[in-house]
Amino acid sequence: MNSIIFTAGARILVALLFVFSLFMLLRGHHLPGGGFIGGLLGAVAFIVYSLACGPAEAKSALRASPEGIAAVGLGIALVAGLVAFFFGDPFFTGQWYWVGGDSYETSIFSLNTVLVFDIGVYLVVLGSILSIAYAFEEET
Amino acid sequence: MTSWLLVMPIAVPFATAVLAYLMRRAPAGRWISLTGSVLSLVASIALLMAVLDEGVIAAQMSNWDAPFGITLVADYLGVVMVVITAITGLATAIYALGEIPERLERLGYHALFQTLIAGVTGAFLTGDLFNLYVWFEVMLISSFGLLVLGGTREQLDAGIKYVALNLVSTLIFLSGIGLLYGVTGTLNMADLRDAVANSEDQTLITVIAMMFMVGFGVKAGVFPLFFWLPASYHTPSFAVSAVFAGLLTKVGVYAMMRMFTLVFVGDIGFTHEILIWVSLATMLTGVLGAAAQTDFRKILSFHIISQIGYMTLGLALYTPLALMGGVFYLVHHIIVKANLFLVSGVAYKLTGSTDLNRIGGLYKSSPFLAALFIVPAFSLAGFPPLSGFWAKYLIVKASIELEMWFVAFIALFVGLLTIFSMTKIWGMAFWKPHPDGIEPVPTRVPAHIRLPMMLPIIGLATMTVLIGLFPEPFVQFAETAAAQLLDPSDYVTTVLGAQR
Questions:
Q1: A93 touches chain B (CB under 8 A)
Q2: Chain A: residue whose CA lies nearest to B62
Q3: Which sign does the torsion angle of CA B59, B65, B66, B68 carry?
Q4: pLDDT digits (tens, 9 = 90+) for B73-123
Q5: For residue A99, which phi and psi values (nearest 5 degrees)?
Q6: Which residues numbered 67-86 in A keep a CB inside 8 Å of some CB on B?
Q7: Contact B192, B496 (CB under 8 A)
Q8: Burial class, B397, CB count within 10 angstroms (exposed 0-12 / middle 13-18 / buried 19+)
Q9: What are the C-alpha distances in Å from B442 to residues B91, B435, B446?
Q10: Quick one: which of B15, B166, B295, B415 has the fewest CB in 10 Å?
Q11: Nearest C-alpha in B relative to A82
């Protein structure tokens, strides 16, 4: 696609989409959002970028292979589930550490395995959508 | 802590898949995959021990109690399927050391393979209907990847047919899930049992039941929904087709057995009666289809279909003896069928083709392979004292007890036709001389390829013989499994009462 308007607009759009995807990822669990929707938005950002600047540049901007990202994401999600073992809980039970309080209302922020799991999901979705999208681009 | 026993058979192959993918360019990848398969087997045997010890065990993922969270359950049927999946997985992982070329390994063969095993295991362990759908999708994606890996024209053609028809099946399955949730408000299988029985609209329940039967029927490959199976199973590498042949259709049969003993038992006269006729048609069309083929793997593919009929027949007759036969058949069939596909791979390496018209001479040059073919082939046909004899015996006996002479006759007749197909392979691939004058001696294949391919064949054939010679513990196991299926009160109370 060789439209100069699209290429110029894509720069802003890609940045916005990507920031929004990270926002969605971090917003999840307590509010609508999460890793899946965030990953989809992140993938859209890269697809827009590859439509504007060509697949080769989009691939180099991603730095890693999409399949590799998906595999690492699966690993992260799995590890997030396995953490529960060390606390004697069933698989995938969320482990929470509240900073400056003892619940959602009183604490400043929390460290938890749920977010780690969501990051894993984010990477799985991002990686698998992009690997499919890139495969299509190679075909055409 | 029992909850971790249920998780491990699923988590281990997933972890292996991740590591194997990251190491796919190094030779370490295949050893990671092999180690993962060994660990899966250890994990599933640990689970088997726990089930033998305590009966049905269940675990609530994330500590959400049933029926709200996802439950993993292992009863006798579920756990034996998990163990047999791990055994098949290990056998084909060893086989892959010899067969799978480095080119496919670099594309991520081992990661896809382990994901497939994880998906199959998950489907056997889950106690939640939507989760079952998710496992079906995991299986479908990874098996599609394995099917088209390498990307030849033939493989892509098969892959499209496979995926298109299986997507239709999952869509019907998913619509059924949606309707069922709308009617009952729950998707936990144990919870569904009461919810479905107490539902006011039993007509709608029967309609939903038929949607599930069609959805699972496509997966299992029953008449008239089996077309994807012979169109695709002969194209991928032999290790892949052995896993497919052993496990994939059996997940459909398992799901059918689970749903039509646990949930949809309100109108047995209707649903199970249909299943009897479907089973008979499946047995006949499968075996007749095989008679028309001359490709080693295509013959075996059609025989999968015909054997599926026996298993669904065990479910359809719905007596303790018949279900016992169905469970026994399921286990016996996975071992035998995977082994036959593995043998066909060795025959291909030795003779250079799978077309029976273009190969031969295996008996004279490789008598050991011939002996290893005889065991699963005659077991498939139901020769005493091999495992298939007991499986068929139980099914036929159950139909005679119900005085369904026609059913018993068809079951025996199909067995006879199976022998015909097996002797055809025997005569054309093993007895007649090779048409090109080649002598397919084992040394035509280098030892580092031949040995890992022969080892799992020997192992699986030994299991077939052992089950045949000492059927008692296996039959007893199947009897308990059938009793649990017919009276799932243990299953229901364990799931709904399971904490931690």
A1: yes
A2: A93
A3: negative
A4: 999 999 999 999 999 999 999 999 988 888 888 888 999 999 999 999 999
A5: -95, 120
A6: 67-68, 71-72, 74-75, 78, 81-82, 85
A7: no
A8: middle
A9: 20, 18, 8
A10: B295
A11: B11
Single-letter code of the amino acid located at B60: Q
> What are the backbone dihedrals phi and psi of residue B363, each rounded to the nearest 5 degrees, phi first?
-65, -45
Please give the Cα distance from B29 to A50 (Å, whole number): 32
Label residues B361-371 b or e (16+ Cβ within 10 Å = b): bbbbbbeebbe
Secondary structure (3-state) at A97: strand
Which residues fall within 8 angstroms of residue B435, CB to CB, at 6 or more apart? B357, B358, B359, B360
pTM above 0.90, yes or no: yes
Residue A23 CA to its chain's centroid (Å): 10
DSSP B195-211: HHHT-S-HHHHHHHHHH
CB distance A138 to A51 below 8 Å: no
Q: Which of B312, B302, B440 is nearest to B369 (CA)?
A: B440
B14 in contact with chain A, both atoms CB, cutoff 8 A? yes
Interchain pair A91, B22: CB under 8 A? no
One-letter identity of residue B416: L
Q: How many CB atoms lie within 10 A of CB B171?
A: 11
| Contact indicator for B211, B173 with CB cutoff of 8 Å | yes
Q: In angstroms, how far is CA B419 from the centroid of its own chain?
A: 22
Q: What does the pLDDT look like over B322-356, one tens digit per residue?
A: 999 999 999 999 999 999 999 999 888 888 888 88
The one-letter amino acid code at A117 reads F
B198 touches chain A (CB under 8 A): no
CB B138 within 8 A of CB B124: no
